Amino acid sequence: MESTNPLFPWSDSDQETWQTHRDGLYAIHTQFVGRALTVAEAHDGMRTIIETVTWERFTQMLQGHFHTLAQDPRLAISSEASRHMGTAHMRAHISPSWFIRLFNEYFPAYHEMQEKWGDGLPPLRLVRTRWLWDVATALDSYNDLLHHEIAQQSQKVADLMAYAYQDPLTGLLNRRGLEELIERHDQLYSNIPGLLILLDLDGFKAVNDQFGHPAGDHFLQETAQSWRSLIRSHDGLARIGGDEFGLWFTFAGQPEQVISHLQHMAQALPSKTFPFGVSGGIARYPDDGRRFQDLYRQADKALYQSKNHGKGCVSTLSPPRFYPLSSA
Question: Where is the GGDEF domain (predicted)?
């Protein structure tokens, strides 16, 4: 049988030598268990865990594991025992350093038994190799489980972050998500201009009043889906609330750079049944502010200016300029 671990080679002749010293191995293991219990008792975490299963049971578990060391390490059952050991330590929150500290008692146990057993003990070379194989396999299992748990926790955090920044109805960013996007832009690209545009659907209230909120929600979802396809990957689209949307254009300093884009969005409204239009207000970053709250306040004032102007347009406050989008 060939070695399954190139780092710790183990030949058929090694295993034959190992087997002929089985009695000596059991003597080492008995000596080791006594030393390991002393180490475990000095560790608060280990002692607490052991006391939950009783010391007698823990002793049996140690003896049972080290009796597997008499087996051929190339066998799947032996590697499985080592992996279970690493997993158990991980789940018990026992650090690898204490894990190795305890298992290092194997070598003093070996030397203590040398005077009594002499040639009845296996060569120290094999003892080291077998010990390394066992511990390395256990630590690999420990590491694999740790990475798995970290990945699970990271995914949970990502899911929570997505929930925190996502509008549940449309799947777009919500107000908080849009705010985070602009704050990140301010931190990383403070010298690059941008535009925050608030868009409001003209006449949308009539849908809710006449057909109910489910119909209105469906229209908002269709609008979000249509507009999402028109947004560049480095821009942001959010549903602020109700029928108000927020649009963040980076690399754009003047409204004229995005008016044709906004007109396409107005034309893309799923308004076959109802002749909806769009009104909007524009705030410039950094001229009108760097913080989301300041930009939002400016864009909101411009939005109401557009409504009072007759709707179907988007405007800036200073200077007051109006750009037609659609008819109300």
Answer: 192-319
Q: Which CATH number fits domain 12-157: 1.10.490.10, 2.40.30.90, 1.25.40.10, 3.40.50.720?
A: 1.10.490.10
One of 235, 243, 288, 300 is an active-site residue; which one? 243
Residue 92 predicted with pLDDT over 50: yes
pLDDT tens digits, 160-173: 667 789 999 999 99
Strands 194-202 and 244-250: antiparallel
Residue 121, token pair as written in the block:
């003990």
pTM here? 0.57
Query: Known catalytic residue: 294?
Result: no
290 confidence band (pLDDT: 50, 70, 90): very high
Burial, 129: exposed, middle or buried (Cβ in 10 Å; 0-12, 13-18, 19+)?
buried
